[in-house]
Amino acid sequence: MCTLYLDESGDHVYGKYVNWGDRYLSLCGCIFEDSIYGGFEIATNKLKLDNFNSSQIIFVRRKIIDKVRGFWVLRDEQRKDKFDKEMLEWIKLSSFTLVSVVIDKKKHQEKYGKMAFHPYHYSLSAMMERYCGWLDFHNKTGRIVAEARGKEDDRKLKTAYRHTYYQGTLFRRPDFFKNCLSTNEILIRPKSANIAGLQIADMIAYPSKREILIEKKQLINPTTETFSEKVCTVIQRKYNRHFYSRVVDG
Question: Is 159 exposed, middle or buried (0-12, 13-18, 19+ CB in 10 A)?
Fold first, then answer.
């Protein structure tokens, strides 16, 4: 049994294209085999204890960057450098497969107008195709866990998941998803549940989106993003190739 832990970079709002971070929505999925996930949790708790003296602190990329809440200790440059180094090692040594899906909301809206698909849900169906393709190739079954985003958003996400599960997509019949997925429901968990798989997806979602847009499609120009570059370098070396990714624009 495997579990894909899902997080996003960007939002699902159309018409908000001030910068590339707004224009492109990315879903990042980290696939773990359940049999070794316990070891990953232990490593995650050790990273937290060594740097913040608590395994209950929850990794949130934005809070780490802003050094707020429990991450205020990172305002000390020596502690920040130590944590950055150990986080990169944590990513490097963790046994997971990364799947990233990026949607160009502007092009998608221009193509479909008022009939444009909900970008998060459209990206989810693309993610399910990739994930189930991976499960099928490796003769495994799995489930998907996403972080709660609000009662109404969660309800709609569950509906979108069930639609793909029961109706299939343009490229895959329903049986393909039913044979690979262990449940007809996406599992949604609150941030407070402190799920390590969701937290590593949170750490990687933005760097992977940025890397894909630069190298895969040359849709944005490279800028100085030192730590994001380090994260992507670790992942690329880890698998000796670029991300298992898909860019969808319509």
Answer: exposed
CA 114 to chain centre: 27
Each residue of 214-229: pLDDT tens digit?
876 567 777 666 788 7
Q: Which residues of the chain have pLDDT under 50?
A: 241-244, 250
Q: Write down the CATH number for the domain with range 2-42+94-248.
A: 3.30.420
- Give the model confidence (pLDDT) of 115-163 as tens digits: 888 999 999 999 999 999 999 999 999 999 999 999 999 999 999 999 9
What is the rounded CA–CA span in Å between residue 29 and residue 200? Answer: 9
For helices 77-93 and 196-211, the axis angle rounded to 10 degrees is 90
Q: Are 99 and 135 in contact (CB under 8 A)?
A: no
Tokens standing for 247?
Answer: 């860019």
Distance CA 37, CA 137 (A): 21
